[in-house]
Amino acid sequence: MSEFAAFVQLGFAHITALDAIDHILFLLALAAIYTPRDWPDILWVVTAFTVGHSLTLALAVTGMVRVDSAIVEFLIPLTIVATCIENMIVRARASPSRIRNRPILAGVFGLVHGAGFAGYLQNAFGENVGLPLAGFNLGIEAGQIVVLLAVFGFLHLLDGVIARSRAASSRWPVVRLRSAGVSVLIMIVAVRWAVLRSPW
User: Fold this and answer.
1) How many whole angstroms separate alpha carbon 162 and alpha carbon 147?
2) What is the mean pLDDT of the chain?
3) CA-based, 20 to 30 A from 105: which of 79, 84, 166, 196?
4) Is 10 exposed, middle or buried (0-12, 13-18, 19+ CB in 10 A)?
5) Extents of the domains making up the chain
């Protein structure tokens, strides 16, 4: 196996492994307000997140930026909490403000998650970081696609359960009810992580 392929595999394994559950929950929080019909919005959000974490990852592993891993590990659950809060604040799913601001939010939070990926890679690269970095990033992106496909499968099943339960109403349609419920549960987990990871 080539070095490039090895780092693709490493990136894919990192984002899909259980020890990357914080990144997975962030993707779930990002996706919670969407349905598959919203794919143009989802594409902008995922692209912004990718650009953000790729930039920080590149800067950190090349030594251009130094990151405090304890601070980063504390900030990652805070990005999840903030995303969940935004999910619950935004009521009109197709509002222009959400479409405009959501990619910005994802891009900024991607910077934090990229620093988290960098902490994982601190000792993995040799002197030549270009090819391994590209391979790892590609693996991360492939892993994100797999995670998002699984997330939307889960959300679709959840929508069916909510619809059959007749819990939805005109004020709380299925997608909004699902988004609020998923966001609250994720936020509880993320708040606990933030408390446990607090560097102070």
Assistant:
1) 22
2) 86
3) 196
4) middle
5) 3-197
